[in-house]
Amino acid sequence: MDAVVAAQRALLGRELVGPVTVRISAGRITEVTVGEPPGSDATHVLEDGVLSPGLVDVQINGAVGVDFAEVDAESMAAVASALPQTGVTRFVPTLITAPVDTIVKQSHAVLDAVAALPLRPAARPLGLHLEGPFLSPLRHGVHDPNLMADPVPAHIDQLLGDERLRAALRVVTLAPERPGGLDAVRRLTEAGVLVSVGHTDATGEQTRAAAEAGAAMVTHLFNAQRGLGHREPGVPGTALVDERFTLGLIADLAHVDADVCRLVFNAAAERVALTTDAVAAAGMPPGRYQLGGSDVLLTEEGVPRSPEGTIAGSALTMDRAVRNIVSLGVDPAVVLASASTVPADALGERGLGRIEPGAVADLVWWDPELRPRQVWVDGEVAFDARGGRATRHNAVKAGEVRLPAAGR
């Protein structure tokens, strides 16, 4: 479907400029014009707000009542239909720690559900993110440490030897200090997989060694990893100064304090990838939900927790993450790039996360309060706040999605 979108301001590169006219044909951006008023052929004239690329979430365990560890075609379609309301047009379904045999089975279930997605405009999955089982029991968070394993050649063979899984595998989070860790980083990187350092007790030196081996991201910076010290920088200290790393950041202001989020952007704004680490509780009212088959409880506080009280992922949405960081005084252009361009680049998706000729026509029109008003996926409207295109799992009605309060 061809369209011409005229915006007062749009994110081009890392700057908000305008006016901007974006021409779309066959799901791609064909032309971007700056500094000219809308032409008579404009099909969408955006009277205020900002136009940005679609948001990309590289770590999402589920949403709207759905846990990707137990997903089917209907529930995957519910997530894909719901995410555009939050500005997300592409996402990487994430599976947490389980035995390797189980992870392979879960991966195939996710891929079956993805293959069955209807053709209507909705957020599109970008493969798989395996967050485990090659993690450190010392930094297990809500993951079951008894199910963790060393990334020995046999386990990596099992993942990469499954042709369907190998083709879909985009991200693997692991602890590089585990026996076989650096060799696993090399093999996965050579196979085209983005290796992310996470749930790890790695020192700064071990973190640098992981980068030398090919690791290029950190999973949820500061959380479930050796902390920053003035003599031992740990994972955060090294990653903040090593430009080889993209920094995944859960910006609910509960996982990472507001001042520390501000510090991260002051130190390395161009490498921050906002992510949600959302679980089934995201977009849902308080209640009991699942993460990797285990119970998590969402209270009015807005932060999912295990029965023992450990934070268990988040109920964050990407649009809320954008608003949270902007509320700290960070340039909105920088923040919008952190939710779109940076994660797309980390995944090697040069045709996503940008408004330029040749890019996929995934777009978000934000209102002046930075709430998504209209969202395009492949050049077609997937969500319109004024007309309502949103579905919810478990009979939650459109318009009734409950977002966590600011700061949660």
From TrEMBL:
Coiled-coil ranges per UniProt: none
Record's keyword annotation contains Hydrolase: yes
GO molecular function, one term: N-acetylglucosamine-6-phosphate deacetylase activity
EC number: 3.5.1.25
InterPro entries: Amidohydro-rel, GlcNAc_6-P_deAcase, Metal-dep_hydrolase_composite, Metal_Hydrolase
Top-level taxonomic group: Bacteria
Similarity-based family: Belongs to the metallo-dependent hydrolases superfamily. NagA family.
Listed name of the protein: N-acetylglucosamine-6-phosphate deacetylase
The organism of origin for this protein: Allokutzneria oryzae
Organism phylogeny: Bacteria, Bacillati, Actinomycetota, Actinomycetes, Pseudonocardiales
Gene expressing this chain: nagA
